Amino acid sequence: MTSEMTLREKILLCEGESFWHTKANDTAGIDSIMLCDGPHGLRKQAAAADMLGINESVPATCFPTAAATGCSWDEELLTEIGTALGEEARAEGVAVLLGPGVNIKRDPTCGRNFEYFSEDPYLAGKLAAAHIRGVESTGTASSLKHFAANSQEYKRFSSDSVMDERTLREIYLTGFEIAVKEGSPSTVMCAYNKLNGVHCSDNKMLLTDILRSEWGFDGLVMTDWGAMSDRIAAFKAGCDLNMPGGSDYMLRETMEAVERGELLESDIDRSVGRVIALAKKKQAPVPCDMEAHYALARKAAAESAVLLKNDGILPVSDKSGVVFFGKMAKEPRYQGAGSSHINPYRLISACDAAPDVKYAEDVSEARSAKICVVFAGLTDEYESEGFDRDNMKMPPEQVALIEAVAAENTNTVVVLSCGSAVECPWADKVRAILFVGLPGEAGGDAICDLLFGRANPCGKLAESWPLSYEDALTSGYYAHGKKDAHYREGVYVGYRYYMSAGVPVRWEFGYGLSFTSFEYSDLKVDGKTVSCTIKNTGSVAGKEIAELYIEPPRGDFYRPTRELRDFRKVYLEPGEAKIISFELSDRAFALWNDGWQIPGGEYGILIAASSEDVRLRGTIIRPGSTSAAPKTPDWYFALKGKPTHADFEALLGRKIPEKPLKKGEFTMENTVAEMRNHSLMMKIMYSAVEGTVAKGFGGKKDYSNPEFRMMMASAADASMSAMKINGAMKNYVLDGMLAIANGHPLRGIRLMLKK
Ligand code: BGC
């Protein structure tokens, strides 16, 4: 097939046709296919396209975001959701659904945490694989994203994620590995950022050596929207499709590289083959049952909610005298802002779901109520794709409302809606707290099911909730004004740090209450098979999540004291007991030391109700074999204070070069926002961009509006080459501007005139 196509035709086939479409090709016999976001609902923009979820899309079921479904620890549920998402995409003629995102919640303030499952790669990978299996079962292709090490929004288009290989393998790649091996997605989306200095789009180690050769991925790699760095390097690296399309990005340079013999035509043919294969997968549309999907969204929200505190006030058996407080009871916060933002098919608030419950505008109503339920959390301005949160605080007015109601009435319950952990200094003042994440369109129904006992909470936290942001190891050096991401903490992410360093948290990873109670007994460890019995000792049916952690022996290698290696979610009627079992693979004991290696010794095998609540403990002796442990700075063993830059350089075994911005050395990799303090031309450009973006917001430069902030970050913080791809400006204009910014005005003008 490719032999009948011209080189130009082939290169262009590896770039989309438009924002959401690939190209049709008669020679190859393929139609154009449509690719749409996203991870918790279909965002098919039939009219104006954008990557930030601003323009309206067709109505679709809004499932709970990953911040919620991560807490379900329920692979079957994720497959059901994936199936429903795939069906909706197929019904709308969409061939590829862009999701799920399996990036690690490295820091609680990452603006996009709501779209990711967990701080733990095993849990994230298992849930992503289950989601993918569902989507793919419908004939819709999924796209696992954002590959890899993309855990901050600040300077997301250009930042460099710097880390040691062990951290990369154990924490940042493991989730992708599980999702690829057990989910078999048709496509993988490479991230915007660099990894140790190399753009993900150009990264052969990531896209070919690891993804394809080691993990056996045989699908297509596409770029995130505007993530292509160097088309020539990207072809060599195994990056197939450049999205969005329509800019002929580096067409001439790529053709010349082939003519010079610098790029093999066979590298392009390989990518062309994958684009053709993907287009041929598209199935004819089949209508789907939106009512059934609403019911699934409701079940998913209920099964994902985490009961963080309950002194017995919940469930409420008699609704009379219950009063709802807080705007979110009426106008729920149910999904995050950005590319995953969809147009919900049917949105139900808690007030809609319980019309017989009184809603109070004024807290003065609190005193006379029997039970006050306050709906609070993070508002849209706090949490979005495109920027990170400044800290972990809730909006002051939300905290004030909780405190005011609790001061008036001791029977206060809080329903928390947010896509990531928040500080809860008010927690002791209320009787119950129900965390629902961003629960999707049916959140209101699900919340009432839980409050009034029609459902029993069975979610557990997929991320640690520190007492305050200062307790998070990364606070102080994570994002917030720092362009490059230095992963100083290494493998000590989330509970791996809190547990190992003995830092108390408000609610630990894996924690969640139920309206019933469970008893764990009869641990058996037989070779690599571990089993135990779980019994429902309460009076209502419920589901328990049993978590298996390993506790490695102390030795030459630094290691977190506990690491999740498996889990089971089991449904039990009152009084019922079930035996659950686990098979431990070699990998469960391994660490990365230039290959997966097992340090020998006695490993604790813990069956736990949370990362801190160990119910059963056994041991396994593992013969091991490892090459010598590398020399590692003390911090990684002692975990005293925070790791310094020097600790990090010693861990990496190299210096991290300083890269100060210098006029004269700007490249297409630099952004307008970066260059504006060094160049008048870029300062003017920045103001022009601001003005243009503001036009879409009634002329207001409103940085408190998350959509405005996101648009500004996308426009002014994208590299000049991404601006070329996005077609924001003509290539020759950008070339000219760069020359002027570098102090060569005449050359710049010549370039602009030359076209
Ligand atoms: C996001 C992706 C998304 C793409 C298309 C990007 O900005 O990072 O997750 O799929 O836009 O909307």
Helix and strand layout, with pairings?
Layout: H1 7-13, E1 35-37, E2 59-60, H2 66-69, H3 75-91, E3 96-98, H4 121-137, E4 141-147, E5 160-162, H5 165-183, E6 187-190, E7 194-195, E8 198-199, H6 204-214, E9 220-223, H7 231-237, H8 251-259, H9 265-280, H10 290-304, E10 306-310, E11 322-325, E12 343-344, H11 350-353, E13 358-360, E14 371-377, H12 396-408, E15 412-417, E16 432-435, H13 443-451, E17 465-466, E18 485-486, H14 495-501, E19 505-507, E20 518-526, E21 529-536, E22 542-551, E23 563-572, E24 577-583, E25 591-592, E26 596-597, E27 601-608, E28 614-622, H15 635-638, H16 645-652, H17 672-675, H18 680-695, H19 706-716, H20 720-725, H21 731-741, H22 745-754
Parallel strand pairs: 1-3, 2-12, 3-4, 4-6, 5-7, 5-18, 6-9, 11-13, 11-14, 14-15, 15-16
Antiparallel strand pairs: 7-8, 10-16, 17-19, 20-21, 21-24, 22-23, 22-27, 25-26, 27-28
Features:
755 residues; alpha/beta; TIM Barrel; Rossmann fold; Immunoglobulin-like; 4 domains; six-stranded mixed sheet; five-stranded parallel sheet; 28 strands; 18% strand; binds beta-D-glucopyranose
Brief summary:
With 755 residues, the chain is of the alpha/beta class. Helix content is 30%, strand content 18%.
Describe the structure.
This protein folds into four domains: 278 residues, Glycoside hydrolase, family 3, N-terminal domain (TIM Barrel, Alpha-Beta Barrel); 214 residues, Rossmann fold; 124 residues, Sandwich (Immunoglobulin-like), CATH 2.60.40; 83 residues, no CATH class. The protein contains 22 helices and 28 strands. Helix 6 packs parallel to helix 7. A six-stranded mixed sheet has the order 10-16-15-14-11-13, covered by helices on one side. It has a five-stranded parallel sheet with strand order 1-3-4-6-9. With 755 residues, it is of the alpha/beta class. The structure holds beta-D-glucopyranose. Beta-D-glucopyranose binds next to loops.
